[in-house]
Amino acid sequence: MFHDIQSVIASKAGWFYILTVNIILGFSIYLIFSKYGKICIGGKDEKPEFTYFSWFSMLFSAGMGIGLVFYAVAEPISHYLVPPYGDGNSIESAKVAMQFTFFHWGLHAWGIYAVLALALAFFSFNRGLPLTIRSIFYPILGEKIHGYIGNVIDIIATVATLFGLTTSLGLGVKQINAGLNHLFGVPEN
């Protein structure tokens, strides 16, 4: 059932997803080089708690996690053998496989992370709102974020995060189980 839903969404709205992610990446780049890139999270007098290298390390680890470990090889091979379009196991499918892999794991994903993280940090540390997704909607909803609507927004965000974590943990367990099977004969199930 989920595969059928995913197939319909990918075939009918895939273009919209790619367009949206490209717009978000463009917006992230705009924020870096515009006057908004100079805004200090926490206020003008705030000093960074971590170095740029520490921040990069934490963001890379949290952003990529087990997904990169599992999919670094599996995703390009999967797209090579069964590409989204065209015949598999060809030079053209190898190019398509790498394009999709770079799209999924390159700057586009980081653009999405950056916009969400900056919005959360700005409204929490500069505006004194709670460090929850509802705070991002303050310019649109105003004080309504502290009531029923805000609760619904946070519940949806929590459920979406839970599904994302479940996927990552499932991939990690699958990989660990395959390793244990190879080393010690533990059954894969």
UniProtKB/TrEMBL annotation:
Report how it sits in the membrane: Multi-pass membrane protein
Keyword annotations for this protein, in alphabetical order, are:
Cell membrane, Membrane, Transmembrane, Transmembrane helix, Transport
Task: List localization entries.
Answer: Cell membrane
Annotated GO CC locations: plasma membrane
Locate the transmembrane regions by residue number: 15-33, 53-74, 102-125, 145-165
**Entry-linked Pfam families:** BCCT
- A single Gene Ontology molecular function, please? transmembrane transporter activity
Descriptive protein name: Uncharacterized protein
Q: Which organism is it from?
A: marine metagenome
